[in-house]
Amino acid sequence: MRAFCGLIRQELRLGMRQGGDIGLVLGFFVLAVILFPFGIGPEPELLRRVAAGIVWVAALLAAVLSLDRLFAADYADGGLDQIALSAMPLEMAVLAKSAAHWLTTGLPLVIVSPLLAMLVDLDPAALPSLVLGLLLGTPAMSLVGAIAAGLSLGARRPAVLTTLLVLPLYLPPLIFGTGAVEASLAAEGARAHLLLLAALTVAAVPLAPLAAAAALRQALD
Amino acid sequence: MPPFSATAELIGENLACRRGERFVFAGLDCRIAPGDALVLTGPNGSGKSSLLRLLATLLARAAGRMLWGGIPVEDDWPGYRAAIHYFGHLDGVKPALTPREMLGFWAALRGVHRPAIDAALAAFGIERIADWPCRWLSAGQRRRLALARLIAAPAPVWLLDEPAAALDADGEARLAAAMASHRAAGGRVVVATHQPLALPGAATLALDRFAAARDPIAI
After folding, report:
1. What is the DSSP string of B84-128?
2. What would the pLDDT profile of A171-180 be if each residue is shown by its tens digit?
3. Which terminus of chain B, N or C, has fewer Cβ atoms within 10 Å?
4. H/E run at residue B30
5. B205 to chain A, minimum CA–CA distance in Å?
6. Are strands B22-32 and B84-87 parallel, antiparallel or unpaired?
7. Which tens digit of pLDDT belongs to each residue from B9-27?
8. Closest CA to B103 of B88, B81, B119, B90
9. Listed residue (B199, B162, B147, B165) closest to B48, CA to CA
10. Are B105 and A10 inside 8 Å of each other by CB?
């Protein structure tokens, strides 16, 4: 437990000191959302129709942008050796890393998402299901991302490989996340979609660390 | 420094390491008793670093057994990992953190309750820079910091890969003193080095004797 908390604390401290990483992710998120009205035209009707999709896709791409930092720095500077030899199983270390990744990227994205939703004129009635959906879905994205980040260690262009590996895996949260917004716009109730998002995260908590730890062991060997 | 379990021996039997199709070494036996020091020698590529990583369980072995205190290490991973300190070429020092924070983190990773951070900083003469960001540190200072984690979170077996690289004369003397007091307290040291280190009574293991390139063995 001491090792688990110590790793999270160190990751958060690094995230704070190198504030650029968080700023980069948020900046990308904001810019990507702002680009859409320029690309598809500023008609409010059209924007309102695709608002949820825009925010979700932009959040997803912003999360991917930061994934290659998850293990790459530790792999390059030898810190991963110390983590692998720590008092906790490697799976727990992956869980700690993913949690810290979510706290430094997923959570800030969730916090600024209402602002961006207003920017693309999302119906305020659908705002709770958008934010709640992101809150439930982004942890799964950090966890699944850890698998891709682990697998691409040692590759020649790990950032590109991580993106290619992880984007197809982000389809389920994207589908249920936008589905939740659609459902609440149609006054059907977003409960089922949100429950499925929560289920994705709950399933990823035990399963993703197993896969990511196996990938890390392969990279260390 | 606390005395370590007085009787536990680290024994490697018939160890082999394979990289792709090629065996780096094979049929290697080693035995490290309390207070022992083992110096690994051999030309570049003879497998010194591989043997250290193998002993640290970071590298899967192609054959052989490893026993810690008479128990195969597979039967008690956490116990064995708590017993070893691996010190490799790469130091894992984060430029944005301070030496004090790094040592605290390394000790926390090992689950140590009250790390001896001040003693560790003093042992390698880096108290003065304890609160600087590590990006200001020289290569030798980073090396000293990485070595200080051996003191901050004690473990009975030290696996050191070229620990004296980038160290000045004072750093080498401090390293020798740290290894001497570690062994005096019942610790064990396995070290791969090209430089002569002050290790009285150390055994030597020449790795080129175990090169197995020409006699491939069945797995």
Report:
1. EEEE-S-----TTS-HHHHHHHHHHHTT-SS--HHHHHHHTT-GG
2. 999 999 999 9
3. C
4. strand B22-32
5. 23
6. unpaired
7. 899 999 999 888 888 888 8
8. B119
9. B162
10. yes
Q: What is the pTM of this model?
A: 0.90
Overall CATH class of domain B34-57+81-204: alpha beta
Nearest-5° Cα angle at A55, A52 to A61: 135
Q: Which residues contact A206 (CB under 8 A, 6 or more apart)?
A: none
* Pairwise CB contact (< 8 Å): A6 & B108: yes
| Residues in chain B closer than 8 A to A214 (CB atoms) | none
Asked if B91 reaches chain A (Cβ–Cβ under 8 Å), the answer is: yes
What is the tally of structural domains in chain A? Answer: 1
Question: DSSP class of residue A104?
Answer: I
Cα(A126)–Cα(A160) distance, integer angstroms:
34
Q: Which domain holds residue A213?
A: 2-220
B95 CB-side CA count, 13 A: 7
In the three-class reduction of DSSP (H, G, I as helix; E, B as strand; rest coil), residue B189 is classed as strand
Task: Collect all residues with Cβ–Cβ distance below 8 Å to A115 and sequence separation of at least 6.
Answer: none
Q: Percent of chain B scored above 70 by pLDDT?
A: 94
Distance, in Å, from the CA atom of A60 to the CA atom of B19, rounded to the nearest integer, reads 39
ipTM of the complex: 0.87
Rounded to 10°, the helix A191-220/A171-185 angle is 170
Distance in Å from the first CA to the final CA of chain B: 43
Which residues of chain A make contact with B110, given a CB cutoff of 8 A?
Answer: 3, 86-87
As a whole number of angstroms, the distance between CA B136 and CA B157 comes to 31
